[in-house]
Amino acid sequence: MENNTSPLQKYQRQPKLYIDLPSQGVWYNENVVTKYKDLEVYSMTANDEISIKTPDALFSGMTVKTIIENCVPSIKDAWHINSIDLDYILAAIRLASYGDSITIEKKCTKCDNEDQYAIPVQPMLDYLQNTKPIFDIEVEGFKIHLRPLTYKEIVENNQSNMHVSRSLRQVLKSFADDDPKQGEHVEKMYDELNQRTKEVVCRVITMITTPDGDNEQNQQFIRDFILNGEPVFYNTIQERFINNNDLLTLPPTKVECSECGAESDIKTELDYSNFFSKT
Ligand SMILES: [Zn+2]
Questions:
Q1: Whole-structure pTM value
Q2: In the chain, what is the greatest distance between 2 CA atoms, to the nearest angstrom?
Q3: CA of 112 to the centre of ligand 1 (A)
Q4: Which of 221, 225, 83 has its CA nearest to residue 156?
Q5: Taking the CB of residue 229, how many other CB atoms lie within 10 A of it?
Q6: C-beta of residue 233 within 8 angstroms of C-beta of residue 84
Q7: Spacing, Cα 264 to ligand 1 middle (Å)
Q8: Could you tell me the distance, in angstroms and rounded to a whole number, from the CA of residue 125 to the centre of ligand 1?
Q9: Which of 7-11, 34-38, 253-257 has the lowest mean pLDDT?
């Protein structure tokens, strides 16, 4: 009979830390996460580290999805992890894998001296745990309930934005004023961007409660109301959406040049390719 247990098994990796999801699990069901408190976080495996180095691994989101599910086993479907929790989870995985510091190189804009800064991860977790985006708003007596974007939606948005800005760059590079076709082309791309924004803004509305207290959850009716109604509704929702994104973006870290003492900001945007590599 084949022996299926290995003496190596008891040396398998142990959880490095435990986290509570900042969203408190509000938008999830048990197919997405099995709990929202005390989730075990393991360090990345050798496999994870190898797969993250594949070109385009980060672009499709598939690798990050797999890493999240590998390192935080209570997360069953990382595509549905929302923007409130996403960076928090990534920062926790980073902390579990490489400890509490990210090394970032930066050239001083004053004297060109290049410094290496160790940016601590724990303050990122603290910030993201305590930031409070707002998802219930009131406009002209209507209560509008919003939801955060999911990781899947974030990846899709990034891909289409990248696609549009790439083709826009190409057109602008060869732009000739006297070619009416190119003007049309640019207009079409801006149109596409606007269309995308409209879709996203409408999609994050989960319910509208009228001043009479009636609820509407039908996506089509909600869309018609928002796009064909007074602009104040659309504009307020879009503004809220942008404000929430700002609240979920890590504030910059102040650093000082070791040569000339000039202060500058390091954006701790979790540029994922840096984020997942050791140095
Ligand atoms: Zn300097």
A1: 0.88
A2: 80
A3: 6
A4: 83
A5: 12
A6: no
A7: 9
A8: 29
A9: 7-11
